[in-house]
Design brief:
The complex is a heterodimer of chains A (116) and B (111). Chain A is mainly beta. Chain A contains no helices and eleven strands. In chain A, the strands form two sheets. In chain A, strands 2, 4, 5, 6, 9, 10 and 11 form a seven-stranded mixed sheet that branches. In chain A, strands 1-3-8-7 form a four-stranded antiparallel sheet, with no helix packed on it. The radius of gyration of chain A is 13 Å and the shape is globular. Chain B has 111 residues and is mainly beta. The chains are: A mainly beta (116), B mainly beta (111).
């Protein structure tokens, strides 16, 4: 089955700790994205990547970091600098082609992070 | 910057009734995409509209793209409990690979 996997589904951490969320896809997509979802709000882009070893900040990148060492993997680290890390985190991927903005995004099941 | 606004934020519908949710952009869009997120789930792509004035149907769902390509609507007829969830519209920003998502319309259904 092709798709995107995220692990774990639920994650609990103490304040001040860094935590890394996993995202793997076997869709052979070039573009990958990380979104944050809070209640009553849409999806806000944290980081995105169009190619291995390259990534760009999204709208709310502060307190987060990413890497793209392999095409199929795009892990997100939530650092202790992120002031309100408790949220639902969604990873997505899409075809790049002539313009990834014109292609649908496939989402993983998400990771619900709770920091206390 | 480009923003996509959705109204209403919440829609409470009696089973069997129709409703419409609206999406408005501050700029012209090359296309508009719609996604559905079931409670506890993740967004799933429903459809993409590209042409001005385009109308597409998926069973009881009718999607429309405005003539000016700055707004879109989703109309659901004879609402069922399976329609429960949050519907997002998303439009690509003009100069990069990012999608700008609306805040979503959360639909609940009264049996």
């Amino acid at each position: 089955d092709g798709g995107i996997t995220q692990s774990p589904k639920y994650l609990f951490r103490k304040e001040g700790q860094n935590v890394t969320l996993s995202c793997e896809q076997n869709l052979n997509h070039d573009a990958m994205y990380w979104y944050r979802q809070d209640p009553g709000q849409g999806l806000r882009l944290i980081y995105y990547s169009q190619i291995v070893n390259d990534f760009q900040k999204g709208d709310i990148a502060e307190g987060y970091s990413v890497s793209r060492e392999k095409k199929e993997s795009f892990p997100l680290t939530v650092t202790s600098a992120q002031k309100n890390p408790t949220a639902f985190y969604l990873c997505a991927s899409s075809t790049l082609g002539e313009g990834a903005r014109d292609y649908e995004q496939y989402f993983g099941p998400g990771t619900r992070l709770t920091v206390t | 910057g480009q923003q996509v606004m959705q109204i209403p934020q919440y829609q409470h519908v009696q089973e069997g009734e129709d409703f419409t949710t609206y999406c408005n952009s501050s700029t012209t869009l090359s296309n508009i995409q719609w996604y559905k997120q079931r409670p506890g789930g993740h967004p799933v792509f429903l459809i993409q509209l590209v042409k001005s004035g385009e109308v597409k149907k998926q069973k009881r769902l009718t999607f429309q793209f405005g003539e000016a390509k700055k707004n879109s609507s989703l109309h659901i007829t004879a609402t069922q409990t399976t329609d429960v969830g949050t519907y997002f519209c998303a439009g690509p920003r003009s100069n990069d690979y990012k999608l700008s998502f609306g805040a979503g319309t959360t639909v609940t259904v009264r049996a």
